[in-house]
Specification:
By secondary structure, the chain is α/β, with parallel strands linked by helices. Helices cover 43% and strands 15% of the residues. The protein contains 9 helices and 15 strands. A 6-stranded mixed beta sheet has the order 3-6-9-12-14-15. A 5-stranded parallel beta sheet has the order 1-4-7-10-13. A 4-stranded parallel beta sheet has the order 2-5-8-11, with no helix packed on it. Strand 14 and strand 15 form a beta hairpin. Helix 2 crosses helix 3.
């Protein structure tokens, strides 16, 4: 099971790494100071990082920063989900090299946290603003997550480029997706039309999962697969269209990130 860390523990680790980098790389001192070292809390620092990236002339960083802080205050459990997402990158991605790198630079992490703010806005009947955040996130990160989609915690989107998650999609806890994954519909139908991804699922690079189908708990979807039918729990599928090719060797493939079929 993934290790549970408190927000205070994570914030101390991020600050410590930032202080070490500031000592060894003077060119980054202004950036590290602005985004991390001048702040007293994890959420204030995250709001600064995201708002600077999503800044635009028509919706400036100060406004976005307030929106993010309002979301974190208005729904405190979001912070726990964010910590779980960051922990997922540290635990599952050898490229993370600690806590500071994914916190500052991983666009999959940033895209999911931007979605969390947009989702809060959507649920509070501020839907045009939620769509605005979605559109800016798509432009900035090349990740398009509809603000009405439902994502759990411990979500890792590795590399993230080209990921699309539709309006009625559900992604439960401790799921790992790679770049180019689509959780989409199959046509012009309305209503519940997107996939439901259960806990512990690993979805390989470029996989397309289409329609109101379910990928069961602990399943694995091979890279570049086209999934048009529900996948049973603890089953491995691959191909176009995807067919059963085996079963994962662990209960939660998302946690060990082994893509062999």
């Amino acid at each position: 099971m993934p290790q549970q860390r408190t927000i205070d523990e994570v914030w101390k680790l991020i600050r410590s790494e930032a202080e070490d980098v500031a000592m060894s790389e003077p060119a980054l001192v202004p950036y590290l100071s602005r985004c991390i070292l001048r702040h007293q809390s994890f959420d204030a620092s995250l709001a600064c990082v995201l708002s600077n990236e999503l800044d635009a002339p028509h919706l400036q960083a100060e406004v976005i920063n307030r929106l993010i802080r309002d979301a974190l205050l208005g729904q405190p459990e979001i912070v726990g989900a964010i910590v779980a997402d960051l922990s997922a990158h540290v635990d599952r991605d050898p490229a993370s090299a600690g806590w500071l790198t994914p916190f500052l630079y991983f666009k999959g992490f940033h895209a999911v946290q931007s979605y969390r703010v947009a989702h809060w806005l959507w649920n509070n009947d501020r839907r045009y603003l939620a769509r605005h955040i979605q559109a800016k996130c798509s432009q900035e990160y090349d990740v398009d997550i509809h603000p009405a989609a439902r994502l759990g915690k411990g979500i890792m989107i590795d590399h993230a480029t080209g990921v699309v998650i539709g309006e009625t999609a559900v992604v439960e806890d401790d799921v790992s997706l790679l770049h180019g994954v689509t959780l989409g519909g199959t046509g012009k139908e309305c209503g519940d039309r997107h996939p439901k991804i259960r806990c512990g699922v690993l979805i390989g690079t470029g996989a397309k999962i289409l329609g109101n189908i379910e990928v069961g708990r602990g399943a694995k979807v091979g890279a570049a697969s086209l999934v048009l039918e529900s996948v049973a729990p603890h089953t491995t599928v691959a191909g176009v269209p995807a067919k059963v090719v085996g079963s994962p060797s662990v209960d939660s493939p998302a946690l060990d990130m082994q893509h062999e079929l």
